[in-house]
Design goal:
By secondary structure, the chain is α/β, with parallel strands linked by helices. About 40% of the residues lie in helices and about 20% in strands. The chain has 15 helices and 16 strands. Strands 4-5-6-10-11-12-13-14 form an eight-stranded parallel β-barrel, surrounded by five helices. It has a three-stranded antiparallel beta sheet with strand order 1-2-3. It has a three-stranded antiparallel beta sheet with strand order 7-8-9. The chain is globular, with a radius of gyration of 21 Å. The N and C termini lie far apart (about 60 Å). The structure holds zinc ion. Zinc ion binds near residues 329, 333, 364 and 367.
């Protein structure tokens, strides 16, 4: 009798993904990359310029955090230090000293956020570098070339992102351009892989050892366009599928409306990645709708501005009510910061402008996000996810912020 083998399980795959438990739409699984296994749902700390700001790689690897995959940013690394520097170092993993998995975004979103400084044509996007003001040009082909030189384990197609409030016509035009760019990204990516341009190539048991490429579904808040975009993206064929263009100024309710409609239509046997979202509550809500992967700057960025995420909601360390408070940031957190330091001390550091304040708050915030996802995974596997979600969301309001 012939056994049926899914194409994703052959040794020519760049990734393997297996859903091991499901409750409603929420999934717990294992994503196997050429640089190790990642339990999903997973939160990926953002390392824009080759650093997760304010934290050492040893801390990211520590049992406190145990981040299995982090992000790098094509746009920023391309402009500075430039791909020649990273190429000569042997790729981004070697350059930064990180052997675990790396995902790079395509630069599309950064160019989008430049707003008026950019000019979009069929060929690509022209813009002024924020580093030195020089005129630069980013296209699907350039983005794929940069991501191959970085040697990330998962790369993203170069897409165009319509603003959150964009009308139907504008969104449709943008979405169709994204589809054409996705096809060009796929072709350039395949060419670069067969030319051996991938700086991160590594022998990996049961996998091809090559880079993986994810497609991105666009369409803003228009569900009909989202569905078309999904079909266009799946027809090209990728190793995973991302939902882009959310958290770009649209109404808060749009996020869950789009996920309710689109996530269940996404191919079940591939990882689903929600780009750039969001608060702990958003993450848990998106998991409930079938999302497997997340990235967001909130834990690191807010850590630097004195805001802690805790199991009872946000906590502003500047607040004078913590002046003599001997309690840790979060009494139910097991991270090394909460084990050792009080709110009073953290507040003192912050008010004195000490860099350690940012370091410690960033560490705790990342621990909170990563630990939340650990709790999410365990509860899906034990069949307790609805209870976990209810209790988690209920506690978040306790600080009243
Ligand atoms: Zn903590």
């Amino acid at each position: 009798m012939a056994t049926s083998v899914s194409p994703r399980e052959t040794d020519t795959s760049a990734l393997r993904f297996k859903v091991e438990a499901q409750q409603g739409e929420a999934r717990a699984g294992v994503l196997t990359t050429r640089r190790g296994q990642i339990q999903t749902p997973v939160f990926m700390p953002v390392g824009t310029a080759g650093t997760v700001k304010g934290i050492r790689f040893e801390a990211l690897e520590s049992s406190d955090l145990d981040a299995r995959i982090i992000l790098g940013n094509t746009y920023h690394l391309w402009l500075r230090p430039g791909i020649e520097v990273i190429k000569s170092a042997g790729g981004l993993h070697r350059f930064i000293g990180w052997n675990r998995a790396l995902l790079t975004d395509s630069g599309g979103f950064q160019v989008f956020s430049l707003g008026a400084l950019r000019k979009i044509t069929e060929e690509g996007t022209e813009f002024r570098s924020h580093v030195d003001g020089s005129l630069r040009f980013l296209s699907p082909e350039v983005s794929m070339e940069v991501q191959a030189a970085l040697g990330s384990d998962i790369s993203m197609v170069f897409d165009e992102c319509a603003p959150g409030e964009a009308g139907h016509e504008e969104t449709e035009r943008s979405m169709n351009l994204t589809a054409r760019w996705a096809k060009r990204s796929r072709e350039a990516f395949d060419r670069l892989q067969s030319d051996g341009a991938d700086a991160g190539y590594i022998e990996a048991e049961g996998l091809s050892g090559t880079q993986a490429l994810f497609g991105i579904v666009q369409g803003s808040s228009h569900l009909d366009l989202r569905r078309i975009s999904l079909e266009q993206t799946v027809n090209i064929g990728f190793d995973g599928y991302a939902i882009g263009g959310l958290s770009v100024g649209e109404e808060k309710s749009v996020l869950f409306e789009v996920l309710d409609d689109i996530a269940p239509r996404m191919p079940k046997e591939f990882p689903r990645y929600l780009m750039g979202v969001g608060t702990p509550e958003d993450l848990v809500g998106a998991v409930a709708r079938g999302v497997d992967m997340f990235d967001c700057v909130l834990p690191t960025r807010n850590g630097r501005t004195g805001q802690a995420f805790t199991s009872s909601g946000k906590l502003n360390i500047k607040n004078s009510q913590w002046t003599n408070d001997a309690r840790p940031l979060d009494e139910s957190c097991r991270c090394s910061v909460c084990k050792r330091h009080s709110r009073a001390y953290l507040r003192h550091l912050y008010m004195s402008g000490e860099m350690l304040a940012s370091v410690l708050l960033t560490h705790h915030n990342l621990a909170f996000f990563l630990d939340t996802m650990r709790g999410v995974r365990q509860s899906i596997r034990s069949g307790d996810f609805p209870k976990f979600r209810r209790e988690f969301t209920g506690r978040l309001g306790a600080n009243g912020e």
